[in-house]
Amino acid sequence: MVVFIFMVLGLLLIVLQTTVFMIHPLWVSAPDLYYILVAYLAYRFDLLRSLVIIFPLSWTMDIFSGVVLGMYPAICFGAFFLLKTLSVKVPLRESFYQVPMIGVSYLVVSKVVYIGILLFEPGVLAPWSWPEMLVRVGLMILLAYPLFRLFEFINQRLQRSFVPYRLLRVRPGNRYRQEDN
Amino acid sequence: MRQKGSSKRSNRFRAFRFVLLSAILLTLALILFVSTLGSQKFGILHKLVFEVTGPVQQVFSRAAGYVNVFKEQYVDLIDVRDENKRLWKELQETRAAAYKNREAMATNAKLKKLLEFKESTDLPLVSTRIIGKDPSLWFRTVIVDRGSSDGVFKGMPVVTGDGIVGQIITVSPNYSKVLLAISPSSAIDVLLQKSRVRGILKGTGSLTFKLDYVLKTVDVKEGDYVVTAGYGGLFPSGLPVGIVSKVIKKRRGMFLEIEVTPAVDYLTLEKLLIIQQEKPFNE
What we know:
The complex is a heterodimer.
Chain A: H1 2-18, H2 33-44, H3 47-64, H4 71-89, H5 95-120, H6 130-160, H7 165-168
Chain B: H1 2-37, H2 44-75, H3 77-120, E1 125-133, E2 141-144, E3 157-159, E4 164-171, E5 176-180, E6 187-192, E7 197-203, E8 209-212, E9 225-228, E10 240-248, E11 257-262, E12 271-275
Antiparallel strand pairs in B: 1-2, 1-12, 2-5, 3-4, 3-12, 4-5, 6-7, 6-9, 7-8, 8-11, 9-10, 10-11
């Protein structure tokens, strides 16, 4: 259920990003909402569930954006593993560091993917622009906190679940208790 | 006995006073009546009364004036608040109506241009609307609400009344993705309308094109019109593309560096036309 809801949420964010936030085809101030979700998954979800959510998310981004298929999966999975590794290896569990880290990872992953595409398909991309990228990063950092709160709220609500499975679950008896025959 | 006699006298005096007062009043009334009806003159008595009542009237009139001012300035504010609310509501409604009218006029102008283009050409066209825009900073594509079920296929040119917009790059049954001509991966065969010299128009990712492969020997000036050449068979020939906005002649190299401003305003793109050619235009 959690996975499905977050998949739908991801699609909704992509739709918002490609419609409401894009005022014209060259609009710069549109935050990459899908990336914030990827970062949230990296910080809060386990590996399997995250991958199940990220796969359709990046797939859909590829459909809606660009001409190079596979670019968004590269960005999303790259960002996910980078943030996941950082959150485990480096003491970045504090939420104080997590939000700026989203911006830094966005820049790093984007630059790596950009260079990769330039190498394999030159002449396809618009020139790299630091001011535009920094605007995107700024917007993402601004929106990361409220969106994290929203995702956290949804996640917690879903954890409580509509059907109390734990109560319905058939529990085995206490195997350590000696049966009186 | 003495007391009885004095009260009798006082009663008589009262009666006398009453009669005397009545007689005076009657006489005055009679005089007033006769003087009013008789000579029709504004007599001394009139003037006297006039003079006496005038200041009183003045005082009352001023007081009434102050009361009126007070009422207008403070008590009427209760009504003003309601009126203010009503007027604000009216203003908002009027503003909304004005905005709608302006919007309708702008849409009308755009549709008129599309219609003029549609009527001026024999090409089979299908109208479409942009429903999504590429959020990436590196690509320039849009999603439109027509697909293969409407007879739209990969490679078809997309235009507006002003000129070329781009071409279809991917198609699903009901939706398509359009690669805008300003995209760096777009390349179109074009002609300089005046000199009839051919070049390749490439997107830059911004609101300008780059015109490549025009020799330095060619006379190109700012303001020259650029149109589609129709050589590749993808675009029909003669469609407006843009206007030359900058020409740079470098010492090195064979070709000019030419910047072209698009004929189409990419910032206000909304409704588009897809040219439905089944085979290349140059066949």
